[in-house]
Amino acid sequence: MIEISGIKKSYKMGDNVVDALRDVTLTIEDGDFVAIMGPSGSGKSTLMHILGLLDVPTSGSYKLHGREVSKLSEDELAVLRRDEIGFIFQQFNLLPRMPAWQNVSLPLLYSEKKFDFDKAKVLLDKVGLGSRNDHKPNELSGGQQQRVAIARSLINNPKIIFADEPTGNLDSKSEKEIMAILKDLNAQGITVVIVTHEDEIGEQANRLIRMRDGEIQSDERRVPLKAAESHKSEQSLHAKFHFGEVLEHFHQGWKTLAANKVRSGLSMLGILIGVAAVVTMLALGHGAQDAIEKQLSSMGSNLLILRAGNVRVAGVAQESGVRIRITTDDVAALKSQIPSIKDIVPTVQGRGQVTYLNKNWNTTVMGVSTAFVQVRNSEPVLGRFFSEQENQRRALVAVIGKTVSRELFGEKSPVGETIKINKVNFNVIGLLPEKGAQGPNDQDDRIVVPVQTAMFRLFGKNYVDSVDVEVGNKEDIDTTQDSLKEVLNKRHRVPISQQDDAFQIFNMADLQAAISSSGQTMSMLLSSIAAISLLVGGIGIMNIMLVSVTERTREIGLRKAIGGRKIDILMQFLAESVVVSVIGGLLGISLAWGVTTILSKTTGWPMAIALDSVALSFFFSAFIGIVFGLYPAKKASELHPIEALRYE
Ligand code: ADP
Ligand code: MG
Questions:
Q1: Which ligand has its closest atom nearest to the C-alpha of 19?
Q2: Domain boundaries in the chain?
Q3: What is the DSSP letter of 353?
Q4: CA 155–ligand 1 middle distance (angstroms)
Q5: Which of ligand 1's atoms lies nearest the C-alpha of 43?
Q6: Which of 63, 79, 510, 544 has the greatest number of beta carbons closer than 10 A?
Q7: Residue (of 324, 312, 345, 341) closest to 481 by Cα position
Q8: In angstroms, what is the C-alpha Rg of the chain?
Q9: Atom 13 in ligand 1: residue holding the nearest Cα
Q10: Whole-prediction pTM value?
Q11: Where are the beta strands (DSSP E) in 535-590?
Q12: For atom 14 of ligand 1, which residue has the closest CA?
C-alpha cells in the first residue's frame, strides 16, 4: 500500500521557484489500477518519480508498504526499486548495445548477480517478443522496444508497476497491445499506476485521478476494488556484495571497450608505452649487467691489475724527472719476493695492422707471458700457445682470436699460416678460445704474441703497460696489494710523498661490487622514469573514463532506476578502467618482448626479460586502472537517478 501525505516538490530555477507538486495526499491500495491524467506540466511525472523512488520530495511523508521512505538510505532505496517496483518510461530507456534479452535481464545483474537468458525469454514471450531475443533496440520498433522495457520491469516480480505515459511515443495499435499487457498484469495482482493524457486509457482504469498545477483536482473510482491481500514488506533491504557480479562487470567492460575500439586503443596507449619502456629498459639493464659480470668473473675475482701511475720521479740527470715504468725485471722481482702471487703476466698492448695475402684487418695486439693461459683461461682450441723459450728469444709467433681468424682466413684453419703484423712476418701457432662479444667489446678481436716480441720487435718499448697478478688465496688479496706497492716503490726509489700514487692496482672484486651497485642505481633511475610514464598513462585512462561517464550519464541513471546500488555502478566503471589498463599492460609486455628480441638479435647483447618485471608491470597497470578509474567511477556512482536520466 502506498500512502503519501502533504507531498511538496519545488524546483529552484535561478531566482524562480517552480512548485511542481503543491500538496498531494493520496493512498493507493494493493492490486489497484490507477490512471493519473492532467495537462502537460501539471506534475504527473514529478509525482511518479517520487512514487517510484527515483526522486525525493521537498517535504511530506511517503510510506511504501508501511515503511517511511525518507528514513531509508540510498542503497536501501536501490534494493526497493529493484525488488518491489517496476518503472516504465515514456522513452523506453533501453541500453542500445545490449540485445533485448540482456536489457530484460539487466536488473538481475543487481539482484542475482548474473544475466539469465531463460528468465528473460519467458518474459519476452509473455509480451509477445519471444522471437526477438537477440535484437538490439535499434532493430526494434517503438512498440516492441516498450514491450522489452515492460519485460524488464517485470523480471524481479515487482508488486507495483509505475508507467509514465508508456504509450506516449507509440501508434494506436501498439498502444492497445501495451494496455492489454498492463491490464493482464493487474489481473495477476500487480498494482499498476499509469500516467496518460488519453481519455480512452484513463477510462480503462479502476480509478482515475486528475491533476492540475501540482494538485489533485479530482479522484474518481470507476470500478470497485477487488479485495486484494494487503502486502506488508518485512524483507531486509541489505544486499551483500557478490563476486559473480564483478566477473560480469569485467565481461561487460570488455564489450563496452570492444565497441569503442579506437578510443579504447588510444586510452591504452599511455600504459602500453609505459609498460613496454619499463620492461625493455629493465631487460636491457639486466642484460648489460649480466654481460659485464660474466666477463669479470671469467677473469677471476682473485685478479689484480697493476699499472704505473702518472707520476714523475726526480731522475739523476733530468730536472723534470722521469715517468715510472714497470719493466720485466720488476715483474720477475715481484714474482720471487711475494709468495702469495700464484701467477703473474706482464702485458703490452697496442694496435696492429694485420695482413694475410690480400686481406687486411686492424686489431688489438697483446704481448703476454705464458702464464696468460692460466690467468685468463685461454688454452688454445687449435694449435698451441708459445713457450717461455720462444718468449725469451722474441720469436715471431702469434696466437689469434676467432674474429681475427674469421676475417683473415674465413673458415680455413689459421694454424701454420704466416701473417704480417705491422709489416713483420709472424707464424700463426694457435687459435684462442672463443670469449664472446660482450657489448661493444669483442673479446675475440685480438692477437696474442710473446711479451718480449711485442716490446722489442713490434712496439719498440722496454717496459710493460700493465701486469695481471693472480693471487692464490682470496684472503691474501689485501696484503698482496700492499706488498706489490711496497716492492715496486722500493725498487723505483719513489719518495714517500708519492708512494700512494706511483702505482695503481685494480681489484676485480672491488670492480665487480662497484658495477653491481651502479647497476642498482641505474635500475632505480629506470624505475622512476617508468613510474612517471605509467602515471601519465593513468591520467590518460582517467580522462577517457571521465568522458565515458559523462557520455553514459543516462545509462547510469537507468541502472540506478532499476536497482543498481552505488557499489554496483562503482564496480562497473572500475572494472572497465582495469580492463583498459590491464590490456594495455599486456600489450606493453608483448611489445617489450618483441623489441628486446629484435635488439638482442641485432646488437648481440644478451637481454633477458625478467619475470619479476613482467609481474610487476602487470600488477602495476591493474593498480593504475583502479587508482585512476576510482575518481570517474565514484563520480558516476554518486549521480542521482532521476537527474542522470534527464541528462541530455
Ligand atoms: P507533467 O509530467 O505533468 O507534464 P512534470 O511533473 O514533468 O509535468 O512537471 C511539473 C512542473 O515542474 C513543470 O512546470 C515543469 O516545468 C517543472 N519541472 C519538472 N522537472 C523540473 C526540473 N528538473 N527542473 C525544474 N523544473 C522542473
Ligand atoms: Mg510528464
A1: 1
A2: 2-240, 246-294+514-646, 325-493
A3: E
A4: 29
A5: 6
A6: 544
A7: 341
A8: 44
A9: 41
A10: 0.71
A11: none
A12: 41
